[in-house]
Amino acid sequence: MTRPWILPLLLVLGGSVVAAGLLFRGSPAAAVAILLVFVAFAGVNSPLAFPRSIGWLEAQRRSEADGRPVVFWRPGCTYCMRLRLRLGRSARQLYWVDIWRDPAGAAAVREANDGNETVPTVVVAGRPHTNPDPAWVREQLSPSA
Questions:
Q1: For 130, which of 20, 44, 71, 99 is 20 to 30 Å away at the CA?
Q2: Based on the domain organization, do 68 and 127 belong to the same domain?
Q3: Could you report the per-residue pLDDT of 2-29, keeping only the tens digit for each?
């Protein structure tokens, strides 16, 4: 449960140490700036940057009912962050499964990727697509798709 928060916590702690060093050297403005950069980077790499995750079985059930894609992701993944940012508000229409929180999701990703936990893996109509182009994923959300 705490695994997705390790990277963000390390970033905040590291930024605090660097900021404290700058503060003791007499650079309060630089210390605040550095701390803000580290906190922002921690926020982007935290689970908070993504829509609420659900379990794979629930995502699969919902996807079969309404046809929306399922995205497998994990915190700290730059490719997942790229997909999330490029999808913008459309990302809320997808079902997001954090493979670090859902063992069934991690198993589904390994099955789709020859034993590797390669993310993002997007499942559309039951077919997995590894690290797809965000524009293609957005097209899968259109009513005509």
A1: 44
A2: yes
A3: 666 888 889 999 999 999 999 999 999 9
Cβ atoms within 10 Å of 98's Cβ, excluding its own: 24
Say whether both 64 and 30 belong to one domain: no
CB 141 within 8 A of CB 94: yes
83-123 pLDDT, tens per residue?
A: 988 998 888 899 999 999 999 999 999 999 999 999 999 99
Whole-number Å distance between alpha carbons of 143 and 45: 31
Res 85: pLDDT? 86
Same domain, yes or no, for 39 and 62? no
Range of the domain at 22: 3-48
Contacts of 10 (CB under 8 A, 6+ apart): none
pTM: 0.71
